[in-house]
Amino acid sequence: MKRRTILIDFAGATTHFTRQLEAALKDANLTKTRSISIRPGVGNTKSLVLTLWNSFIRLASIPINYIVLLIDIVTCLPNQIFIFNIPLIPSVETFFLWIIRVNGAVSVGILHNHIPSHGEKKPIRNYRYFEFYNYCDIVVFHDSSISEIFQSIFPNAVPLYTSLPSYSVPNASDNKTQKIMDSEIIKLGFMGTIRPYKNLEIISSEFKLLNKSQLSFLSLKITGKAFYDIDNMVRIFENIGFYEFVYNGELISDEKFFKEMSEYDFLLLPHANSSGSALLSVAASLGVPVIASNLTVFTDFVHRFGNGVIFDHLITGDLHRVVSKLIEDKILREKLKVNALRAVSSVPTWSNYVNDIFECCNELVTRRVQ
Questions:
Q1: Maximal C-alpha separation, the chain
Q2: pTM for the predicted model, two decimal places
Q3: Which single residue of 122, 202, 235, 318 could bond 117 by disulfide (Cβ 3.0 to 4.6 Å)?
């Protein structure tokens, strides 16, 4: 059953995910799919005036887009689908969910992390976070460990566990062919916005345990806008003794983002929570192996496709152990690269992802009629 779908993006932290989902919805739907962006992306500028202006624009856009969304909800047809990607003000959006339910439409919440704001103290963002998802008709999640606790935290919602899809990357085939080229230097990369819960500190502390000979085989590049002071950490990285270290704190275009990731031998995902799941999907679409923490969303993926190695981010020295083994074992490195390239065609597509959502919505509508 095809029906008009509205995708609501409340947070800019999953921009790549939202764009891919929107494109897949438009391809799958016979009727028009519309996207409402509640909060524009963060502008890349060092000017205080422009920064303040961008902040004003972002704040002003919130009530305007809420009004647009409210009109769509009030005038919606029965069984119309509203997909919410992360709430910005859960206490407000929960009210929208109530109206959707009264009108007989279907609400779908994408749960990227069951920990509000990834553990950061954001009162407005965190207040009634669980109530928001519990009031959704369907909650989509990608972390299998949530299945065990789903009913206890979201008893009123229908669970939909589905695998993360492979991202559609322009010129991906051209980038993937680069991975068969051999080099003695192992290129490591850390990408995305830099926040405390992404555990960049663990890389600096663990890599300091490597000896000079090992470090001479490693190149590290960190790309991403930092949302806290990391100047001291950058200086530590500069003095560790890598073959090469580069830090780029500027935002880059999607094209450059994908191209840069494709040049890495391994993508580092030391995250303390599942905020790195989107990066994992991008790496999978490019055939880039990962070095990831032992979060369930990472572990399940790597065990299924063999496209990386897992370390325990709570055990001191475990990342050092994993990296040391990769430096010493060239055959293992090549095996992981081959597995990562092979996995490109095996990872579920966005079409699979959207079909799973539509099937769940159809089942829900059928039960309502009965």
A1: 69
A2: 0.85
A3: 122
